[in-house]
Design goal:
Length: 421
């Protein structure tokens, strides 16, 4: 006979056994009858709770969504013969609201009008609020007269609720909410029935926690896949060259910019040692950089060095290096580099142009500074020649005129140099 169809009947006192610790199971709870004979109606109630527990345990193994699971559990409870079942979650707002999230049975708008809180106020001292606030099972067998049930009594009596039980739902850290069950019989919820329903709430708590953990893992995996895709897109489209290197210096990955810079396919780069790929004039620089990063020591940032591409052309690059941790790998060094050969060539050309411009400015200054005295010499030089008949004096004047002409040509050349092209 299956547990779902099991019935209970009075039984004789069992023979004495040696006490031992064992795991509480539904059948064990149902079999743990009082030493006196139990009334048939009590046995029926316990049997109903046993069937409910068994059916709920089966639902816990099948449902994959929390809202669906809660509705299914409430429906199973009602199908077993209880009048109403609902689940309320404790909100962390200022009013400490209890929000109904699932129900089944004769509800007729009852949960919409509850206005329950788990604060220590009039609307929080009923079974639900007390169960959540204090984290314990709260049983109410006299709804028509219970003082703490006053805010909901009228609506409850209209729907035939005579007794209720509030069972806390919790995870490893806090009370999540409560499972509420209502019966039309004021004598409902006998001791063994309460034990079975308590176990049901514990199992439901575990089921809720398991579903939330699985959902969290799925969302984390989805975010991880999204992050990986975004990373891959940035990696593939980056204009800078990016190399990922393991602690031994082996290239784990390279983006297309590396292939374009080196003039080699990525397949010829990945798996090679970075010293072979870079072909730098100073391999010790990269070796020391990798070692310092892995040891957590500070490194220069950025770093400038020269290397050769596949054609043997000398290239100048600037790099930045970072130690990163990937989820599925050991510490990895990311090297981001940029070819600055053309920039450096442009800088050198600009410096040369500036040097030539400075020379031009100096030549112009010198040339203009010499023009005036040379002009004066030119004007004065013929006078002595005309006034003196001494051959030696004439020879000196001739020499002066010749040197004046040489100086004039030099000044013309200096002024030509200073003239922009």
């Amino acid at each position: 006979m299956s547990a779902a169809n099991a019935t209970l009947s009075p039984c004789r006192r069992p023979a004495a056994r040696t006490p031992r610790r064992s795991r509480l199971t539904p059948r064990a709870v149902a079999a743990d009858v009082p030493r006196r004979r139990r009334p048939a109606r009590d046995l029926a109630r316990v049997n109903r709770a046993l069937r409910t527990l068994t059916a709920c345990d089966e639902a816990l193994t099948q449902e994959t969504e929390e809202p669906t699971l809660l509705r299914e559990i409430c429906q199973i409870i009602v199908d077993a013969g209880y009048r109403l079942s609902w689940v309320g979650y404790a909100e962390e707002d200022a009013a400490k609201t209890v929000t109904p999230v699932a129900f089944a049975g004769l509800e007729e708008g009852y949960t919409e009008r509850l206005g329950i809180t788990w604060a220590d106020t009039d609307r929080g001292r009923g079974p639900t609020g007390t169960s959540i606030r204090e984290g314990r099972t709260v049983l109410e067998r006299d709804i028509p007269h219970a003082p703490d049930f006053a805010p909901w009594r009228e609506d409850a009596l209209k729907r035939g609720y005579a007794a209720s039980i509030a069972l806390p739902l919790r995870d490893s850290e806090k009370v999540l909410g409560a499972l509420m069950i209502y019966a039309g019989d004021p004598k409902a919820f006998v001791e063994e029935e309460v034990a079975l329903l308590t176990r049901l709430a514990e199992n439901l708590s575990h089921g809720i926690t398991a579903l939330r953990q699985r959902r969290a893992r799925e969302e984390a995996e989805t975010r991880g896949r999204g992050s990986e895709q975004r990373y891959r897109t940035l990696f593939e489209t980056a204009t800078e060259s990016i190399l990922l290197i393991d602690p031994r210096g082996t290239v784990l990955d390279a983006n297309p910019a590396v292939a374009a810079f080196l003039g080699r396919p990525i397949a010829e780069v990945v798996g090679k040692n970075v010293w072979q790929v870079a072909r730098t004039e100073n391999p010790e620089l990269l070796q020391g950089l990798l070692k310092a990063l892995l040891e957590g020591k500070p490194v220069p940032d950025p770093i400038y060095f020269s290397m050769q591409d596949s054609s043997g052309r000398r290239r100048e690059v600037v790099i930045r290096a970072r130690l990163i941790s990937l989820l599925d790998a050991s510490p990895t060094v990311a090297i981001i580099g940029r070819d600055i050969t053309e920039e450096r060539d442009a800088e050198r050309l600009a410096l040369e142009n500036e040097r030539l411009a400075a020379l031009g400015r100096a030549a112009a200054f010198i040339g203009h500074a010499l023009v005036t005295p040379l002009t004066n010499i030119s004007l004065l030089a013929p006078s002595p020649e005309r006034q003196s008949a001494d051959p030696k004096a004439k020879e000196k004047v001739t020499t002066v005129n010749e040197q004046r002409l040489v100086a004039g040509r030099i000044i013309s050349d200096l002024l030509a140099i200073s003239t922009p092209l």
